[in-house]
Amino acid sequence: MEMLFAVLGGLILSLAVHFALPRRELRGAALLAAIGTAVSAVVWSALTWLGLPFDGGWIWVASIAAGPVVALIAGLVLPKRRIAADEQLFEKLAKG
Predict the structure, then answer these.
(1) Contact 14, 37 (CB under 8 A)
(2) Could you tell me the residue range of the domain that residue 67 belongs to?
(3) 74 sits in which H/E element
(4) Please, how many CA atoms are within 13 Å of residue 64, restricted to the half-sphere of its CB?
(5) What is the mean predicted confidence (pLDDT) over 28-53?
(6) What is the C-alpha separation between 40 and 42, in angstroms, rounded?
(7) At a CB cut-off of 8 Å and minimum separation 6, what does 39 contact?
(8) How many domains does the chain have?
(9) Which pTM does this prediction carry?
(10) How many CB atoms lie within 10 A of CB 22?
(11) Taking 80 as the threshold, does the pLDDT of residue 13 lie above it?
């Protein structure tokens, strides 16, 4: 049950990252939220396997913070790669 709350926290913060970053039109509305949610779940699971107690503070901080951090990185990188790929495709199609 605790994992659900931690993952939900990661989801909400990752969704906020989507709206805080520019170039929203170049990525899906749920992409960063999905990435952040998955990362939060993986971090929670990994930390419980490593023996951190679910009622400890660090597992909550790490799992809730990891999702939005990875979503932020993805939100900064993906639009640049999308623009470059679109320009490359345009050049290829313009040549015939």
Answers:
(1) yes
(2) 2-95
(3) helix 57-95
(4) 14
(5) 96
(6) 6
(7) 10, 66, 67, 70, 71
(8) 1
(9) 0.89
(10) 9
(11) yes
